Structures are given as structure tokens and as C-alpha cells.
Amino acid sequence: MAAARGARGPKVVALGGGHGLYASLSALRLLTDNITAIVTVADDGGSSGRLRQEFGVLPPGDLRMALSALCDDSEWGQTWRDVLQHRFTSDGPLNGHALGNLLIVALWEQLGGSVPALEWVGQLLEIRGRVLPMSSMPLKIEADVTENGICETVRGQVDVAVTQGHVDHVRLLPENPPAQPEAIEAVHDAEWVILGPGSWYTSIIPHLLVPELHQALCETSAKRVLALNLRSEKETRGLSVAEHIRSFNDHAPELRLDAIIIDPGVIDDRAEIERAAQACGAQLLARNVRMNDGSARHDPLRFAAAYRDAFEQI
């Protein structure tokens, strides 16, 4: 369900997937009701991967997570969020499936379109905003990976995410996939576009590899913000913060950024990070966005404050 006209706050589009996008949406919803989440559709593991393989559908898991992040604060919204997130544990074929994944696939079969089905789930949760897939077809990630001096090709989101080698470059299969039209419209209509945080090569970079979406991100009049992770993941093992930013620039050299949000705790070489940010056209915003429990999780209030600073200062 799209945010109503005149709803509170600026028009924001957030791109990503999984827990990173969930963290971003949980913060952004404190600032605005005009949110469109654009979600990666390359997951091939777990419940999503099984449903994708069995039914030939978009992987529903990251879409479910985004819907849950935007649910209403009422008892109704919170209850339905918990129902969607419920994961079955059994000795049978339902083991590991999230109920929300099954519901989304059922609605896709009933309605015959991915966007109307997601809007029905959004109405059930009374979400603040809208959730869209980045492409109208399920995609596969392929990466060039170097390990012990040997370059090889790794295929599939799960395998790329856990690779032991250094990821040099990623691409999507099929090549030049179509973007979801509503996602393109949202990017052009946005005042702010947020990329990240999340798995670097499997949740953030893929958005840059859909040609129509890439073009829209370059052409939009919206300000663009990149939110960096709180820790390095397996797929970016050994990559410095500046190298993260440079890899973004390598995959989309013509895409300018306006701001990069980074937690001070992950700054390794401030001068080098500043240089990498400036090469992308971005101002570096160092803000404490981490939870106080020592985990690598974003605090929604602190993260929202960082986004608010970006909205007010850039």
C-alpha cells in the first residue's frame, strides 16, 4: 500500500535486501511515511531458494523482511508482522519455511502479479510506504573471485556470500534484466535515495547492475546516500572501508553520491576514506549508529538521527 499523498516526511527510496534493508527501513520510518523499499531478487538459499526453485517465482524472503520492517506500530500491525516472520520447525517439508514467504507466493499465484500481491500484504500489515522488487524476474549473481592467485567464477548468492576468496567483480544473470517499472518511477519521484547497509556484493551492488534502475539512479534529482556496514562480511573479507567505496565506484563510475554514513567504530584510515568518498562526490558523515550491546546491529533511533542529519545538511 503506497503512502498516501500528503503523508508525513520526504519521499525516500531505500534499496537493498535482508537484514541491512530491514535496519534502514526501521530507522527511516521514524522520519517519514513516504518510503519505497526496492528489494534485491537474487536470493537462492533457504526458504526463498526452495520456493524459487519449486515455483519459478521471485525469492520472497527479502520482500517479506521489508514489509515487516514497515508494519504499523499498532497491535494489529505488530501481530501480523510476527505471523509473517514465523518460521516453521518440523521434520517435514515445511521445516525452515517462513509463513510470510508462503503467503506471498500464494498471493502471486492468486493475483498473477508481484506488485499487487505485495500491496495486499502491505495492507494486511498497514505498512508505512511500499515494497517493490528491483526486477520483474528472479536473478542470479555471478562473481569473479580470486583465491591463492587463481581466478574462478562463483555463481549464486549463497556461494558468493560465503566465498573464501576475494571478490573482484559481480554481475547478474540473465544479463541486462528488466527493472520493475514501479521501481523506476519511485526513483525518479524520490527526494532521497538510500543504498545500504547490507551484504555488499549480494544486496547493494546488484541494484547497480539492472540497466534501467542504474540509469534512473544516475538521472534522478534525488540526493543519494550510501550507508556503510558496521562490520566486514565474508564476501568482503579483508576489504578496507575505502576499498568498499572504490568498489561501488568501479561498478557505477558515473553514479555520484551526496553523502556516505559511517559509524566511527569502523573507520580504519580516515584520510583514505575521505579521498574515496570525494572521488564519488560524497560528503562523509561519521555518526554513531550502533547498538550499545556490542553487537554489529544498527540502533533505529541513532540510525534515524544520522539520516535526519543527512536530510538537513546535504
UniProtKB/TrEMBL annotation:
Pfam families, per the entry: CofD
Protein name: Putative gluconeogenesis factor
NCBIfam families reported in the protein's UniProt record: CofD_related
Functional description taken from the UniProt entry: Required for morphogenesis under gluconeogenic growth conditions.
SUPFAM superfamilies: CofD-like
InterPro entries per record: CofD (IPR002882), CofD-like_dom_sf (IPR038136), Gluconeogen_factor (IPR010119)
Gene Ontology terms: cellular component: cytoplasm
